[in-house]
Amino acid sequence: MKLYITPGSPYARMARIMVLEKALEHRIEIEVAATRRANSPYYTLNPSGRVPYLVRDDGVGMEESSLICDYLDRLDGSPSFPLPTGAQGWEARRLEALARSMLDGLAVWGREIGRPTNEQSPTIIRHEAARSERMADLWEAQIDGPLMQGALNMAQITLACTLGFSARNPAYRWRPVHPKLSDWFDRIAARPSFVATAPPSA
Fold first, then answer.
1. Contact at 8 Å (CB) between 54 and 109?
2. Phi, psi dihedrals of residue 96, rounded to the nearest 5°
3. Domain CATH code at residue 24
4. Does 30 fall in a domain?
5. How far apart are CA 167 and CA 111, in angstroms?
6. What distance in Å separates the CA atoms of residue 94 and residue 87, rounded to the nearest whole number?
7. Which residues span the domain enclosing 179?
8. Residue 104 sits in a domain of what CATH number?
9. Residue 186: inside a domain, yes or no?
10. Are 10 and 164 in contact (CB under 8 A)?
11. Which of 20, 109, 168, 180 has the least CB density, counted as fewest CB within 10 Å?
């Protein structure tokens, strides 16, 4: 199988972390995709041009990080990150959705500041910066919950990849006024799978 990524994508990072956590390095080849380039050969493979993108052994492609992570987790028939049952399952999904909502906003912000200065929208930048502050405040209040402090799960992976996006956006400074969140991130970021997939600085 082949997993297409870009080194700075937090969405692709989730899939890369899953490959390492599940010890699938021998089965999954990592390929850097040429995205956001006119006429890139990658678009023939994946018309959306997004990453991550997993091409299975049967040649079928799969897009979207949560789908790919779930597939990789179940590949060996013994999932390590199954959803809890009952109310805890809904809570796990709620937390993962909150983390992804924060990440989606940061991705918009990141794309905006990546444009030429004369093409950037100050309104979008202000809106997403304010959203990121509100979401960091929310997580500072909720990070002590049992699902965020227990065994590694997809909500934790998603949030850690979201917070790690600060390496790509120097204006995204969430640490100074969120000490509990900062401590939590430092602990999870020390895991080998997170160290190995750390994004390059902008």
1. no
2. -65, -40
3. 3.40.30.10
4. yes
5. 14
6. 11
7. 86-191
8. 1.20.1050.10
9. yes
10. yes
11. 180
CA–CA separation, 187 and 77 (whole Å): 29
For residue 172, what pLDDT is reported?
94
State pTM to two decimals: 0.96
CA atoms of 94 and 146, how far apart (whole Å): 13
Are both 126 and 169 inside the same structural domain?
A: yes
pLDDT of the chain, 202 residues: tens digit per residue: 999 999 999 999 999 999 999 999 999 999 999 998 999 999 999 999 999 999 999 999 999 999 999 999 999 999 999 989 999 999 999 999 999 999 999 999 999 999 999 999 999 999 999 999 999 999 999 999 999 999 999 999 999 999 999 999 989 999 999 999 999 999 999 999 999 999 998 7
Residue that is written with structure tokens 């052994």 in the block: 57
Q: Domain check: are 90 and 70 in the same one?
A: no
Instruction: Report the domain count for the chain.
Output: 2
Q: Residue written as tokens 């006119």?
A: 38
79 falls within a domain: no
Contact indicator for 82, 35 with CB cutoff of 8 Å: no
Tokens representing residue 81 in the block: 């990150």
Domain shared by 91 and 166, yes or no: yes
Q: Are residues 92 and 34 in the same domain?
A: no
Residue that the structure tokens 């013994």 belong to: 78
Contact status, residue 148 vs residue 95, Cβ threshold 8 Å? yes
Helix pair 154-163, 10-21: axis angle to 10 deg:
130
Tell me: do 155 and 175 sit in the same domain. Answer: yes
Q: Is residue 202 part of a domain?
A: no
Cis geometry, peptide bond prior to residue 84 (ω within 30 degrees of 0): no
